[in-house]
Amino acid sequence: RGKRAFIAGVADDNGYGWAIAKALAAAGAEIIVGTWVPALNIFETSLRRGKFDGSRRLPNGSLMEISKVYPLDAVYDTPEDVPEDVKTNKRYAGCSNWTVKEVAESVKNDFGSIDILVHSLANGPEVTKSLLETSRRGYLAAISASSYSFVSLLQHFLPIMNPGGASISLTYIASERTIPGYGGGMSSAKAALESDTKVLAFEAGRKGQIRVNTISAGPLGSRAAKAIGFIEKMIDYSYSNAPLQKELLADEVGNTAAFLVSPLASAVTGSVVYVDNGLNTMGLAV
Ligand code: NAI
Asked: Is residue 182 flagged as an active site residue?
């Protein structure tokens, strides 16, 4: 039987989540995705109207199929957690069962089990503010959307993950080294995500024979990255200073993710794997 992957954080064809979906589909996995509720309508409409058909094309010529798209808001674990103003917000009102617990239940009802869990989402409402200017609310929101969301997803999906399965998330070097401009507590959120990768690798390894790794990716001009405001500068910086002076393609991150969740990486867990043209190794810009 082929493997089944649930990919949280796909809302267009530009980001790392899409590239990971494609790499997994190319390797024969069945793809199901979780899309942020406010982005769901436009994503499904675009899919249906063929707007992504060009980028759905796989190396063998076929188009990537997405078996099902689930609405998801990974900052809420259960319906009881959802505040009234969100419940009644018109972008959420027409949708149901989008908290993490409910999505895991829906996937269980529809598919029974999964083998691969991908977390490719982040959000920091104050990302453009320096840490010194960040509010408590902004900082906690960044951690909630970007770090705890992974803990919650793994917590709720682990019971339906087949032993031998794996999960992967996306992190950024701002967790370990100062990247001015990556603010709002996003650097803190990535540090938490990387530390949690180790602890969760232990816990999920022992509990369900599930591997947990994270990819520290180089800069990509995704929708989320453009919202931060300095992504072009980071891409240029990487091009000038990395050991490999070439564009970083989302597909390169996708391919590494496919490797890490495959049996080829069966002894790799708790790791931060850099997919950044080697930029992280440099101590001096030259
Ligand atoms: P993206 O915009 O394709 O993906 C982010 C996704 O998160 C979007 O689809 C958005 O709708 C979703 N999202 C936001 N809040 C959510 C919530 N509460 N519940 C569910 N979904 C939510 O952008 P990108 O850049 O591909 O981001 C994917 C991951 O890669 C993130 O973890 C990001 O931090 C990481 N990353 C990105 C880098 C870059 O330069 N683009 C570099 C290193 C890591």
From this structure: yes
Cβ 10 vs Cβ 247: under 8 Å: no
**Percent helix, percent strand, percent coil in the chain, to nearest 5:** 50, 15, 35
Nearest CA to ligand 1 atom 29: 120
Output the CA 225–ligand 1 centroid distance in Å: 8
pLDDT tens-digit series, residues 184-212: 999 999 999 999 999 999 999 999 999 99
Collapsed DSSP state (helix, strand, coil) of residue 117: strand
Sign of the dihedral through C-alpha 248, 213, 226, 282 = negative
The token pair that represents 170 in the structure block? 């996306």
**116 - beta bridge partners?**
5, 166
ipTM of the complex: 0.99
pTM comes to 0.98
Integer Cα distance of 193 and 147 in angstroms: 5
CA pair distance 92, 166, nearest whole angstrom? 31
Q: How far is the CA of 144 from the centre of ligand 1 (A)?
A: 13
Regarding the beta carbon of 220 and ligand 1, being less than 6 Å apart is answered yes
Among protein residues, the one with the nearest Cα to ligand 1's atom 11 is: 36
Catalytic residue check, 92? no
Question: Tell me: the pLDDT tens digits for 58-105?
Answer: 999 999 999 999 999 999 999 999 999 999 999 998 899 999 999 999
